[in-house]
Amino acid sequence: MTELNSEHEPEAAQPAPVWPEAAPDGIDDPSIAAIVSALDGVRALPVAEHETVYSELHDALLHALNEDAPMGEGRA
């Protein structure tokens, strides 16, 4: 069996992932900010559950972004 770490190199063989901080600043739409905030808990989940979170996030963003904009706002 191949060891990921050797006695001479105690650091991890693969670097730890760099996780983004909370939802990025600059999201003006509170509904989009709420959807994106689901990413805040991803690092605490088992990797096997990440796909579900990302899929649900994608679907929620797609739905929110395809909603009609209120009168006087939105698409040019």
How would you describe what is shown here?
This protein has helices at residues 30-36, 50-66. It is mainly α. The longest helix has 17 residues, at 50-66. The radius of gyration is 19 Å and the shape is elongated. 1% of the residues are buried. The mean pLDDT is 77.
**Beta-strand content bin:** under 5%
How would you describe the shape?
elongated
Uncertain ranges: none
Q: Assign a percent range to the helix content.
A: 25-40%
The helix-and-strand class reads mainly alpha
Largest sheet: none
Count of separate DSSP helical elements: 2
Please give the alpha-carbon distance between the first and last residues: 60 Å
What's the helix-strand series? HH
Q: What is the CA-based Rg, rounded?
A: 19 Å
According to DSSP, the number of beta strands is 0
Average pLDDT, all residues:
77
Task: Give a brief rundown of this model.
The protein contains two helices and no strands. Helix content is 32%, strand content 0%.
Topology:
Layout: H1 30-36, H2 50-66
Helix pairs in contact: 1-2
Search tags:
single chain, 76 residues, mainly alpha, 0% strand, elongated
